[in-house]
Amino acid sequence: MFIRIYGVLLLLLCSSHSNAALLPKVEELQRLLAESPVEIEVVEPHLIDGRNQPHVVYLGYPVEKVFRVIFGVEWKTAATKMEFRALDGYVSRIPTERFDQYQAYLVFAKTNAREFKMNNLMQHERDVPLGPYYLVWDNIHHSELIAEGGTYWPYQVNEILTSQSPEQGLDPVGKSHYPPELEKYCLSCHQVNGFGGRKTSFDLAEQTKTIGEEKFLAWVLNPASMRPDTKMPAINEGMPETERRAIAKRLFEYLNKLAHK
User: CA separation (Å) from 107 to 60, 64, 183?
Assistant: First the structure.
């Protein structure tokens, strides 16, 4: 009876708050799903150092099962993206079709480990709490995901929303098509026109206009060159340098133009 009542309450929460749902505690999620969690082994992208690719085994549930419990069986038709919000202000918006391509898990513990923490080497952070939940991907069977690094691996997740396309928020004038890399690499932490994560307070477009192209490229390609103790990771270092630089230039051109409107 409790499971049914709690499930109904979650669905009511979603429908009355634009399909937004605070995630239940682990014990409550286990009761809702009525099955045991599974082990998932991954190459942990936040721990990759050069050619060293450490494997970690986590405990959790396939995220699609969590979606069905929270948003119902029609969750895929409710949005173009699934939005994961974290306690530290990080926001990860992930295209719904990606969940058809790759298997993702919402995990809440490491196997054979007391603490659900991690060292985030790229952001110069140690003993970072991962809970309440951490979204991981099966990059053992899909090795192409390893080159993406930690993109789409949000931790400290406590809320999930269904999300529509952000074009109006990013470009209210409606004359420019924003580069997809902006949402993938930048808007998890930064904001443009009020759209994006909450880890920084400044508007990214205005900041781009202030610092100019040379500093912007250095900032996104090698953040430590601008500030040695920065927590900002570089644009995916698993890509060829020419591709990284091309992405950085597209980001600058779009943001610089947007700032002048």
Answer: 4, 12, 24
The domain tally of the chain equals 2
Do 59 and 158 lie in one domain? The reply is: yes
Segment 85-129, tens digit of pLDDT:
999 889 999 999 999 999 999 999 999 888 999 988 767 788 999
- CA dist 205 and 154 (Å) reads 24
Read off φ and ψ for residue 45, nearest 5 degrees: -65, -30
pTM of the full predicted structure? Answer: 0.77
Name the pLDDT band for 172 (thresholds 50, 70, 90).
very low
CB crowding 31-58: b at 16 or more within 10 Å, else e: ebbeeebeebebbbbbbbeeeeeeebeb
Domain boundary residue, one of 133, 163, 193: 163
On whether both 103 and 176 belong to a single domain, the answer is: no
Range of the domain at 117: 2-163
Task: Measure the CA–CA gap between 2 and 18, rounded to whole angstroms.
Answer: 25
- Do the beta carbons of residue 165 and residue 136 sit within 8 Å? no
